[in-house]
Amino acid sequence: MAAPLSTEQPAARVTALKPQRKGLRGRLGSSETRTLFSDADLRRGEGPKIYFGLLALITVVFVLAFFFPIYWMVTGGLKSPVELAQPTPTLIPHAIHWTYYKLAWTQLEIPHYLWNTTLYALGAWGFQLFFDVAIAYALSRLQPLFGKIILALILSSLMLPASALLVPAYLTVAKVPFVHWNLLNTPWALWLPGVANAFNIYILKRFFDQIPQELMDAASIDGAGRFRVLWSVVLPLSRPVLAVVSIFTVIGVWKDFLWPLLVLQDPKVQTINVALARLSSSNERITYSELLAGLVIASIPMILIFIAFQRHILRGLAAGAIKG
User: Would 294 disulfide with which of 104, 213, 282, 283, CB 3.0-4.6 Å?
Assistant: First the structure.
């Protein structure tokens, strides 16, 4: 009579095979990851020193390239005009003069121009968010006639250089068609031309395409209309991408220079960037130390916004980049 099969043998075989499978998976994982230096090179001789040396060198070069201009601007506002005019520049100020920041705040009327720029940025944010969300929602969910053609025309505007659109946009703002209004030296000259932002529309549409249709169908069954679905379903789920669009809009208006320079000729209504450029070429007795201090003050709000919302920017872009 044949001996009964032992139940311990398969279990022992499985136990014996587990380390081998784990090792095989580890080898496959390491082979799929391709880097400039392999693991064997990093363990061999001078490999670690070369790797970390190159990494440190590249890091230092990028830090200098990006942060040295900021450092030069900040320290320039702390130097005296005589020190700035020296043929040999100094990396570290001989003496720190905080008075130039105070003079820039008062003599350059920084609070007034900061308020102007804040007003323009908030107005552009409100208009762009309202119209771009409506356009993206219509193209994504309402599926209008010739919707793909309309989207292609909107995206084709990204292929045109911004300088090519300055003259037509200026003529349109100087004399609005049909109504013949002159919008120069008014906030509308900055708000209206930037309403239909092709980049924002594309990001919003891509995000709206990822929202499950079942959620909208459930809301429609409960009696919600198109606007109710947008307000109660789409917008609450779209907070990451709305944060990205909002930050990009505010930063874009804040750092814009050429368009405000063309449409805002009145000094009282100019933005901070245009005002500082005008003051730098004017006959008023303003030193370069004060101008550099004014540039530092004008840069602080956007730097703080980016530091505070950088995670939202990365999450929003990642959420709108992959269609799941």
Answer: 104
